[in-house]
Amino acid sequence: MPTVVAFETLTELFLNLSKKYKGTEKTAFARKPQTDEPYETITWDQVHEDTHTLAAYMVTHGIEAGDRVAILSENRYEWAVVDLALQLIGAVNVSIYTSLPPKQCEYILKDSGAKMFFVSTGIQLKKAREVFDNCEDLNRVIAFDEPNISSYLDDEYVSLFDKAMAEGMKELPKQKDEIARRSKTIEPEDLATLIYTSGTTGKPKGVMLTHRNIVSNIKAAHQQIEIMDDDRCLSFLPLCHSFERTAGYYAMMAGGAEIYYAESVDTVAKNMTEAHPTIIMSVPRLFEKIYNLVSKSVEEGSAVKQKIFNWAQKVGRKYADGERGIVSMQKKLADKLVFDKLKERTGGRIRFFVSGGAALPAEIGHFFMGAGLHIIEGYGLTETSPVMCCNTYGDEQMGTVGKVLPGVTVAIQRLEDSKIIAEISGEDYPTDHDSEQGEILCKGPNVMEGYWKNKEATREMIDDDGYLHTGDVGKFVDGKLQITDRIKHMILNAGGKNIYPGPIEDLFKTSKWIDQLVVVGERQPYMAALIVPDFEALEAHAEEEGIEYGSIEDLIQKDEIQKIYNNEVRSYSKDLASHEKIRDFRIVSNEFTVESGELTPTLKIKRRIVEDKYGHLIDDIFSN
């Protein structure tokens, strides 16, 4: 579906949307002023005014075209105002994950040469003050919220956002012509943002994305997915990640959709029922949690409830697979008895979810599709702006990430001899094309300019033919891309067999007893796993069965608990090849989190960190 306005740069996108919706009271964004208050909507007229006001403040304080300005903030309206003001004056957005410690924030600020730094809460302002003196290029810090500790505002380089806006309003008449001049000089080849990778090892690299990179991806996405001006998106994935930035922000705006901000990741379930979104961008973890909650509720119910649920699932699956006739009548009953309750919990208006960032287990995808909640799974990297492939509404194929986007070319390179064995362009699409497995490569206008001040890393990523090497392994199935795993995640067992842990881990994620699982077994005679239980399910079971324990560490060692997980591991391993089967395991007493270091900000497992942290458990497994 075409975008609601024409544009070649993000600057034009903002200006043309402002012009289109001028005086219409059209909602652009919405936020919760306080936890218990209803959503407050913000019109495009207000966005236009706020953006120009902040742009005037930035210009007054010496921000030139090409200068870098950093943002350390959760998703919120002020984040969008800062970003749009930067695009308006030709400056570069450098976004930082709020979960990063001060030292990592300092590295990004210094590496990018950021001159101005916007932060959200008092916690983030504290980080900024801690590193300010070490960042030579940095000269101003602006806080969105007034901190609880008033002394945080004592430094002359710190300002509150409201005061900055008040100053910008006074300066706007003087800077209006300069802002207009700059907005007209921005070209598609100009740098729009630096997005620092949250890699599992080494220092983060700044991915240089131009206006052309992102705009090409927005337009290609609109050809694959229908986004309309009466849509509403609930935003909660970090805007400093390219998936939310392009798909949940720019692409939504380009379709005229409203963007509602969740209060936090923890309040998404509540905010869905308040915002009533039609589209939600998410990582698979949200769907896994919903699926496990539903499964747990059914298992705790009566035999009749379980029978009805299982019947509804079968009917839903048949309907999703295209069966009609009597199945259509059965589906209406299944909706009334089972699925409508689930839809109400998502706000009651969902047209579709978009899943990215990691592989979605096929069984979970089928469950949602059967319920009438479409999940469009896509795939890409920060370095590809980010989308390379995605499924389309009504043509979803679970277990694949869909078709190659228009304008993009995806190739498969055999690992053994580096020969390209398959190549599909989004313009000329074969629907019956299958290929061998190999590394996934990408070429197109969405591919980054390179890594900031790191030509060597750029050369390692993009070859002489212009192909970006993703490091992911996959193949084409019926012309759609299927992801196997990361090359660096491949485990070589003692017998020389190559094993990709991702699909194995996805299989176990449907267990109500398992929250997270990491496969281990490098150069070992068999595969094993570290298991993080679903602690809520585990403790409920212990209470129900009268199992006494002093702590979680005590509980997971109980014979009754070990037996549960032994049965789960044996049951799920039946579907695996002999060399892939999980032969042993250890239960971990703490959840893997971003804060404790085992997950990246986009919720991917840092395998090396997990293996180092729990090396004693791995050693115990393989020493027996």
Describe the structure.
This protein has 3 domains: 10-24 and 39-214, ANL, N-terminal domain (Rossmann fold); 279-348 and 350-487, Rossmann fold (3-Layer(aba) Sandwich); 490-622, GMP Synthetase, Chain A, domain 3, CATH 3.30.300. 39% of the residues lie in helices and 21% in strands. The strands form 5 sheets. A 9-stranded mixed β-sheet has the order 2-1-11-10-12-13-14-15-16, sandwiched between helices. The radius of gyration is 25 Å and the shape is globular.
Name a few traits of the molecule.
39% helix, eight-stranded mixed sheet, Rossmann fold, alpha/beta, nine-stranded mixed sheet, single chain, 624 residues, 21% strand, 27 strands, 20 helices, GMP Synthetase, Chain A, domain 3, 3 domains
CATH topology of the largest domain: Rossmann fold
Helical content class:
25-40%
Report the biggest beta sheet as strand number plus sense, adding barrel if it closes. Answer: 9 strands, mixed
Number of DSSP E strands:
27
Which strand order spans the largest sheet, edge to edge or round the barrel?
2-1-11-10-12-13-14-15-16
CATH architecture of the largest domain: 3-Layer(aba) Sandwich
Q: Tell me the strand percentage band.
A: 15-25%
Continuous helix count: 20
Principal-axes geometry comes out as globular
How many individual domains? 3
Mean pLDDT: 92
pLDDT under 50 segments (min length 5)?
none
CATH class of the largest domain: Alpha Beta
Give the oligomer, counting copies of the same chain as homo and different chains as hetero. single chain
Organism: Fodinibius salipaludis
GO molecular function, one term: ATP binding
Pfam family, one: AMP-binding_C_3
Keywords: ATP-binding, Ligase, Nucleotide-binding
